[in-house]
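Researcher: Structure for this, please.
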Amino acid sequence: MLRDRSNEPRAAQLREEVLQKVREYFAAAYDEQPFRPGADPVPVSGRVFDEREMVSLVDSSLDFWLTTGRFAEEFERRFARWFGVRECVLVNSGSSANLVALSTLTAEELGDRRLRPGDEVITAAAGFPTTVNPIIQMGAVPVFLDAELDSYNADLTQLEAALSPKTRAVILAHTLGNPYDARLVRDFCKTHDLWMIEDTCDAVGATVAGKQVGTFGDIATVSFYPAHHLTMGEGGAVMMRSPKLRKIAESVRDWGRDCWCQPGKDNTCGKRFDWKLGGLPHGYDHKYTYSRLGYNLKLTDMQAAVGVAQLDKIDDFVVRRKYNARTLSEELSSIPWLALPKEINDGVSSWFGYPIRVLPGSPVTRDELVRCLNEKKIGTRLLFGGNLTRQPAYRDVTHRCIGGLPNADEIMKSVFWVAAYPGVGAEEMRFIAKTINGAAR
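Model: Predicted structure, token format:
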């Protein structure tokens, strides 16, 4: 058996030498270069990092603690404080965060409010599939709202029409970092005793009336994929105020076990061999007692270490995303055949990407414009799955739609988005605008 001597003087000295070499490596391997229009790519998203992330990553690797550990604990504590909630549960992706969030609401501890097969959950037709998929995986029925054509968020005027005796929850994403009126959704959910889940995977740092999105509902979800506001490479989080919901969410993430010991810890409850649960014999090992259906959705401490370094930059990242979007709005505002995104009153976006809609009668189609941009090495994306009810994965899924979803169809046909992330700046934004202007000539 290996004995851990990492805290001894010689090991500590060697660790610091290794980390200093990492700093030197970063300086030798990476540098800033001026942007060359047409020659350099303008990706829609990407990781933004420096030697601090690399040092933190290597530091964690030297621990050789290959599951969640000290860096994960630090990140959960600090990110919850920054976000404005009490609890943060790290998982391995934003999609897993949504899965854990919906699974948490099926817990028996929640009594009559628990989500059961056949219940309905209100969501958006235009968006990303893994906001919707957990509804289906829980045996519930998604009820699709149409979209607004200025914000690309769900049309909240349809909430009352979507309500039925079977409705138990609402899960909506803040599209591309542009917040919907979370106050309205919160009040609707309170009036009808519904769970509110805010998918903030694309919207960290966005606010409504000065309050962080993700803090209006019962549960919020976050993604740390490289495209997002903070990155761990992969990763996500489930955020909430309720310690009760946190305990359930951690159990879902950790195989569904009843035990709440952290990795490497035993007998936190003080009676590991003195429980009597379910049909198990008295004293069955609490570490192998499962109170719910769960998964292993933990992330590694090495991923969390990258996130810890990113936390020091989050405010600057949000400012730069807003600046890039504002630059594009200024540069594109005079083009009559484009519709630019709009924010709600009291809403401030933290742009994941910058959405653009090509209007009917324009001199180029959306697809022609996208091809033109890509020829200039300007990355583009469509608004995720468009109208999700048109996607083949949902062909045989039981669902309800509020109306014919014409705006979701229009988004599918005429909307795309370009970069707003902190790795690009004003020069790249102006090149995007210039290329769009030139596409119609």
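Researcher: Any notable elements?
Model: The two ends are 72 Å apart (CA to CA). The domain at 315-439 is CATH 3.90.1150.10 (Aspartate Aminotransferase, domain 1).
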